[in-house]
Amino acid sequence: MVMKAKIEAWLENKSAEMGFFLVEVEISKKNEISVFIDTEQGIGIQECTQVSRGLSEFLGDAMEKYSLEVSSPGLDRPLKVAAQFAKNLGKNIEIELKDNSIVAGKMTAVTSKDITIEEKTKSKKKEVEPIFKTFSFSEVKEVKVSISFK
Asked: In the prediction, which pLDDT does 122 show?
């Protein structure tokens, strides 16, 4: 855990300077370090390469024991940090609640305590009143952006 804290501290320190935000750092039992970063516009290969090189240089000889991968969090990973929620405001999401139920809708608001969605309604009527539901993060297991191939 010392290595993870060291990596997170370096990344947090460099994030403003390099123009990204840290999503997550994972270190596997096989000594594989996975760093997930993003930007408001989406992270590119050049930014990931720059962060990877800087982090490798910072860790120095310790990198001989580890492999390092720096990438975007991808569409299939749950949202983890406030900047991700802000970036995806207005997008369709799926919320898995702690009771394992799933609700879907457009994210319309998010605070440090809760998230609000406009729930998808199915009706044959043309004008349907939107249904807004707010969920406390204490009742949320995970939130993912809905992927649509339409």
From this structure: 66
DSSP string covering 77-120: SPP-SHHHHHHTTTSEEEEEETTS-EEEEEEEEE-SSEEEEEE-
- How far apart, in whole angstroms, are the C-alpha atoms of residue 49 and residue 118? 38
Under CATH, which architecture does the 2-71 domain have?
2-Layer Sandwich (3.30)
Q: Render pLDDT for 45-76 as a digit per residue (tens, 0 to 9).
A: 999 999 999 999 999 998 899 999 999 999 88
Amino acid at 47: E
Class of domain 82-145: mainly beta
Averaged pLDDT, 78-94 = 96
Span(s) in the chain for CATH 2.30.30.100: 82-145
Q: Which of 1, 77, 2 lies closest to 36 in space, CA to CA?
A: 77
First to last CA, the chain: 43
pTM: 0.85
Q: Could you give the C-alpha distances from 103 to 28, 96, 110, 113, 134, in angstroms and in order?
A: 31, 7, 16, 18, 11
Q: Evaluate whether 106 touches 92 at the Cβ level (below 8 Å).
A: yes
Residue ranges, comma separated, of all CATH 3.30.300.70 domains in the chain are 2-71
